[in-house]
Design a protein that fits this description.
Length: about 600
C-alpha cells in the first residue's frame, strides 16, 4: 500500500492493498480487518464481524474494494476533513495471525485530505489551420474508482471517448477525448469535472488557428545608441488576425517592454512592442532583433546597433564662478530596480561651513535630492537619501529602485540660508545595467578526496552597499563567512567563503553559487566537481568482506564448541557406565 495517499474531501477514497505469504498461511485469507494506527490499542476502521466497535469517524463509511483473493484494498465512501493525517493499516486473519508472526502495523498508509480538486488538464492536438481536424483530451486524477468523476467537454463538436486508467499508489487518471473540426479562428475549450460528492472544477484553454501576417518592421531603422542612455525602438507587426494577437519578443532581455494594438481600415491590424534599450560599448555591431510569434509560425526583423561611448557630463549649474572642489565620479554603473550609491566629497579650504543643505539637481533644475525632503522632485520622492555627513564634507547620496531613465546627469551643490556654494567636478552620469554582474567562483581542484575540507569562494560586485546581494549555495556547507569590501569607484564586493565536505555521493557534479540582488534580479555561476567515487565503494567492499570473515569465524567457533561439548558429554557417559559396572562386580564378589 502507498505510504501516503491524497483524497478529495466529500469524495471517496480507495487505499490499494495487496498481500502474499510464503509461510504461516492465514486460515481465513478473506478475513481482512483495518485499524487506526495508535501507540496503544487497536481502534477498528473496518471489521464486518464487529461493525458496532468501529470508531465513530469511520463507522458506516468503510468497505473492502477489490475482487482478488490477494486484495485487501479499503474503500472510504465519504472522506471527511477529520480523516486527514490518519494512519491506517490492514491485518489479515487477525484471529489466527498474531503480531509475532507478522507486524502488520508496520505497514501503514497516511490519509491526506484535499479541500479542493485539482484543475483538469486540457491537451490539444492538431487544428493548426482553419477546417483542420482537432483533437482535445481533458484528463484529471482521482482516487475514487468506486464512483468515477463525470467530465463535460465544451467548445468542440464531435464524438467523445472516455478512458479510466490506473496509474499507481491508488491514483487513477480519467480522460475524455473529443474530435472535431476547427470552424473559428479562436476556440475556447472548456472542461468541467464533477467529482463524487458534488465538487466541480473547470478549466479552459484557448486554441487559435493560423492566420495571415503581412510584414514586420523596426523603427527607427538608424540604430544609433549611446552607452547607458535609454532609447526606444518600436517593432510593428501588420496582420489580419481578428482575435489572435501575435506575441512579440526581443533578443535583448531584462529591458522594459510595452505592447499595444491598433486597428486599421478593413481587417488589417497592427500589433506593436516598444523596448527601452540601454546599450553598452560591447553592443556595437550587434543586432537588435524583434520576433513575432503566431500560432502558425514566426517572423522576425533586425537592425544593426551603432553604439557610442558616453562622454563626461558637462556642468549643468547656472553659476559660472566655481569656488570649491568636489570629488564626484563622472560616470557610474547602476542595476535597474536595485539601488546605487554615488560617492561624493568636497573641499572648502578657505572656510569651514557646517550644517549645509545638500542638493543634487537635474538639468531641468528638478531636485533629485534635497535636505528639505519636500523639495525633492516627484519621481524621486522616497527613493533618494543622504548617506554622507555634510559636517565631514561628505555628500554621498543613494538612489533606490533605479529606473530606466534615471541616467541624469545629476550635479551636486550646497546651500546655507541665502548663500549658495558651487563646485567643480560635481556631476555624475548613471549608466544603466539591465542584468547583474555574474558571480566569480574560486577554482576547484581535481580528483577531490571524499571527506576533504574544501574551501570555495563566490564573489560579486555591486553598487548597492545598503542592500548587498545575498549569496546562496546549491550544496550543504559546514561553515560560511560573509565579507563586504569597498573596491572604489562606487563599487562594492560581497564575498561568501564556505567550507564544503564532499562525501563522494553527491547527486550533481557541480556547485552553483547564486547572487540575489536587491530589487529581485539574480545571477549565478557554476563550478564542476571532480570527486573520487571509487574509494567509497572499496571501503564498503572492505567492510562487507571483513564482516563476512567475522561471521564465518563465529559460526566455526560455535560449531567447535558444540562438538567439544558433545564429546565431553560422551566421555562422561562412558566413564559413568564403567564405574557402575565395576561397582556391581565388586558387590557381587562380596
Amino acid at each position: 500500500m502507498p505510504k501516503d495517499i491524497h483524497g478529495l474531501q466529500g469524495s471517496c477514497l480507495v487505499i490499494p492493498c495487496s498481500f502474499s505469504y510464503t509461510s504461516y498461511p492465514p486460515k481465513n485469507p478473506r478475513r481482512i480487518v483495518w485499524y487506526q494506527w495508535v501507540s496503544k490499542g487497536y481502534p477498528l476502521v473496518y471489521d464486518p464481524w464487529h461493525a458496532g466497535d468501529i470508531i465513530k469517524k469511520f463507522k458506516g463509511k468503510t468497505d473492502l474494494y477489490g475482487k482478488s483473493n490477494w486484495d485487501c484494498s479499503l474503500l472510504i465512501k465519504n472522506l471527511e476533513q477529520t480523516h486527514h493525517g490518519e494512519k491506517l493499516y490492514a491485518w489479515i486473519d487477525p484471529e489466527n495471525i498474531g503480531w509475532r508472526t507478522y507486524a502488520f502495523y508496520d505497514v501503514t498508509s497516511t490519509i491526506l485530505v484535499d479541500d479542493h480538486p485539482q484543475q483538469p488538464s486540457i491537451s490539444i492536438y492538431g487544428g493548426e489551420k482553419m477546417s483542420e481536424t482537432i483533437t482535445v483530451a481533458c484528463s484529471t486524477f482521482h482516487t475514487c474508482p468506486y464512483s468515477k468523476p463525470n467530465i463535460i467537454l465544451k467548445g468542440i463538436e464531435g464524438t467523445g471517448k472516455m478512458d479510466n486508467e490506473y496509474i499507481k499508489d491508488g491514483l487513477w487518471k480519467i480522460t475524455l477525448t473529443g474530435t472535431g473540426v476547427v470552424k473559428a479562428e479562436h476556440l475556447t475549450i472548456e472542461c468541467s469535472v464533477t467529482h463524487h460528492g458534488g465538487k466541480t472544477v473547470t478549466a479552459t484553454k484557448n486554441k487559435s488557428a493560423k492566420c495571415v501576417h503581412h510584414k514586420i518592421t523596426i523603427e527607427p531603422e538608424l540604430a544609433d545608441v549611446t552607452e547607458g542612455v535609454a532609447k526606444i525602438f518600436s517593432c510593428s507587426v501588420y496582420h489580419s488576425c481578428q482575435k489572435e494577437t501575435p506575441t512579440i519578443t526581443w533578443n535583448y532581455k531584462n529591458m522594459q517592454v510595452s505592447t499595444g494594438r491598433k486597428t486599421l481600415s478593413g481587417l488589417d491590424r497592427i500589433t506593436y512592442s516598444n523596448i527601452t534599450f540601454r546599450g553598452s560599448k560591447q553592443d556595437h555591431g550587434k543586432k537588435l532583433t524583434c520576433t513575432a510569434i503566431f500560432s502558425g509560425g514566426n517572423t522576425e526583423t533586425s537592425v544593426v546597433l551603432r553604439a557610442q561611448q558616453n562622454q563626461k557630463p558637462v556642468q549643468i549649474l547656472n553659476e559660472t564662478n566655481f569656488q570649491h572642489e568636489a570629488d564626484v565620479m563622472p560616470m557610474i554603473t547602476a542595476l535597474t530596480h536595485s539601488c546605487v550609491v554615488i560617492p561624493c566629497s568636497y573641499k572648502m579650504e578657505e572656510e569651514y561651513v557646517t550644517r549645509l543643505q545638500i542638493i543634487w539637481i537635474t538639468k531641468t533644475d528638478g531636485y533629485m535630492f534635497h535636505t528639505k525632503t519636500d523639495n525633492i522632485f516627484g519621481k524621486f520622492k522616497g527613493r533618494t537619501r543622504l548617506l554622507g555627513n555634510p559636517d565631514e564634507q561628505n555628500c554621498t547620496v543613494e538612489m533606490d529602485d533605479v529606473q530606466t531613465h534615471d541616467n541624469g546627469p545629476f550635479c551636486f551643490r550646497a546651500e546655507k540660508e541665502n548663500k549658495k556654494y558651487s563646485f567643480n567636478n560635481n556631476c555624475v552620469f548613471i549608466i544603466m545595467q539591465a542584468s547583474p554582474n555574474k558571480p566569480v567562483m574560486s577554482s576547484l581542484p581535481e580528483d577531490i578526496e571524499p571527506g576533504a575540507h574544501l574551501t570555495v569562494k563566490c564573489s560579486v560586485n555591486h553598487t548597492c552597499s545598503s542592500h548587498p546581494p545575498n549569496i546562496t549555495w546549491s550544496i550543504p556547507t559546514a561553515q560560511e563567512t560573509i565579507s563586504h569590501n569597498y573596491m572604489g569607484g562606487g563599487v562594492w564586493e560581497t564575498v561568501s567563503t564556505v567550507t564544503f565536505i564532499p562525501n563522494g555521493y553527491e547527486e550533481k557534479d557541480e556547485i552553483v553559487c547564486t547572487a540575489n540582488f536587491w530589487g529581485g534580479k539574480t545571477q549565478n555561476n557554476t563550478a564542476f566537481l571532480s570527486v573520487k567515487r571509487d574509494q567509497g565503494v572499496g571501503f564498503e567492499l572492505y567492510v562487507i568482506a571483513s564482516s563476512l570473515v567475522f561471521i564465518l569465524i563465529c559460526i566455526l567457533g560455535v560449531f567447535m564448541y558444540k562438538r567439544r561439548h558433545r564429546f565431553a558429554k560422551h566421555i562422561y557417559s562412558v566413564t559413568k557406565q564403567a564405574f557402575l559396572q565395576a561397582s556391581y562386580s565388586i558387590t557381587k564378589e562380596v
